[in-house]
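Two proteins, back to back. First:
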Amino acid sequence: MFPFLSTLFKIAVISLLVGAALSFMNVTAEDILGSVGMSPLQLWIYMLEFRDWAIPNMILGAFIVVPIWLVIYLFRPPRAG
């Protein structure tokens, strides 16, 4: 768990530094999105559409994955130590 949290912290710090550098150069998120032909509202709509698609599919997949994981976990031999 520690390596995962450490990686998240490193990503957050680097993102903060890059964001501060871009802000210093007067570059905004709207500028970057505009250069690829999007607006913040379009990005927000795409994120909501992705959420609406992903959550039902994750639940559907969990109906298969969780019982299989549980059976494997229950029948796995005990660990030494």
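And the second protein:
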Amino acid sequence: MTIFSYILLFCVCLLALSVLLALYRFIVGPSVADRLSALDLIAAYLIGLLVIYVMYTDKLIFFDVALVFSLIAFLGAISFAYYLVNQKKHE
């Protein structure tokens, strides 16, 4: 293994720990907005894991998967934010 492989492995470990911490915030979060931001953060971490996987295996098709996943996560975050704004108006 090269030093690059060790660095990628270290990054995967850090991102996995970050996903677990964000998952904790998603489960325990006191408000819907906290859960929404945690879900968006988990999506960003998973995109980072996909990019690291691409760098480790040289399978470039997963760059496209990461791009599509990021677009879907963005649209989901915008949809939930729109829902929260409309929910505040009706209260």
